[in-house]
Amino acid sequence: MSIVQSATDPALLAAMDASSAEEMACLARSLAGAEIHGDAEVQWFFMGPERFNGVLRFSLASEDASYVEARIVQVLDYFRARGVNIGWPVGPTTRPVTLPAYLEAHGFVRESDHIGMVADLFTLNEDQPPVAGLAIKEVLDQETLQAWRPVTVRGFESSDEHVQMYYEGYRTLGFGGELPWHHYLGYLDGEAVANGSLLLHAGVAGIYGITTVPEARRRGIGTAITLHALREARALGYRVGILFPSDMGLNVYRRIGFQECCRIPFYIWSPGH
To answer: Residue 187 forms beta bridges with which residues?
Structure first.
């Protein structure tokens, strides 16, 4: 694996796509009953009726319309047979670039646009006010991961079932050391109130799952965890950080040095189409 050197590195956009795909692929590789299918051009994953399902990669060597159609139909036939909804991100390395028109012709709906952001880890704005009473610790065992779970439920206002999927996946994947995933908990006066994850993959430091419980927001805790994870990545030799923020976190990340570098349309489809 080559480390992406800067925000202008030609390898950056491919690395961003690869990191985003790996977030889901690693779960599909670790959860019971989940599957990954495909080849060098197209890859998709299935986790089950009540879980995430969708496309990880779609980058065809040919732009021949009949070939593009055939590959899309191959994917849809798989998911139609299982009766599940799917998501399909159109990232910067998706090919052909006209794929959105094909997807819309097959009944896909453009649900949202995900913003991709990048930062040079050696020029971060780290001059942030300290948060009194905050301690950040890496999750290094299953017991600490159990404390991560309720914070994630409350921070994202998510269901227990949804967070359980991540919990089971992260537990199976393991903790710390030279593994690609690193998870962090923020304790305010001894109480777990925030968390975030670092994915070291494809030569970039990906930040995922930053959240704070409602009563502890607007104190700089999310910023502190983000910077902590990025410093850890920098110490391991990484030079570029990436993330895909929510609207709530967009300005926070801009303040510490992240800049928008791409937009990723996200399409959804259900078997009824």
So the answer is: 135, 192
